[in-house]
Amino acid sequence: MENRNRKVYRRERIKHRIRKTVYGTAECPRLSVFRSNAEIYAQIINDDLGVTLVSASSSVSTINSQKITKIEKAKLVGADLGVRAVEAGIQRVVFDRNGYLYHGRVKSLADAAREGGLKF
Predict the structure, then answer these.
(1) What's the DSSP call for residue 69?
(2) Nearest Cα residue to 76 out of 102, 28, 115
(3) The CATH number fitting domain 3-115, selected from 3.30.420.100, 1.20.120.640, 1.10.1740.10, 3.30.70.330
């Protein structure tokens, strides 16, 4: 097995293991994080209805135009998501790190979302 395929396979296994227990409801939706090489995306999902309630990403022009590191971009996305969620009336969420390690960009996004008003 090629090294890249091994990494993808490992992340998929971790992701399925997390998703067995993490489930978003109307009272407590799921905050899911996706991290690509260049960008980071986060969305708050109600799994009962299969609907995305709030989303934020670093690909918007206000964040992407700045010359900052990827960790700082993740902080901005987390803060933006926290503000949007509070405006939508969401206070509590369950965190789905989507198979990524809780480290670096994922951790900075989560911390900024907490500072933005979310509890998890």
Answers:
(1) -
(2) 115
(3) 3.30.420.100
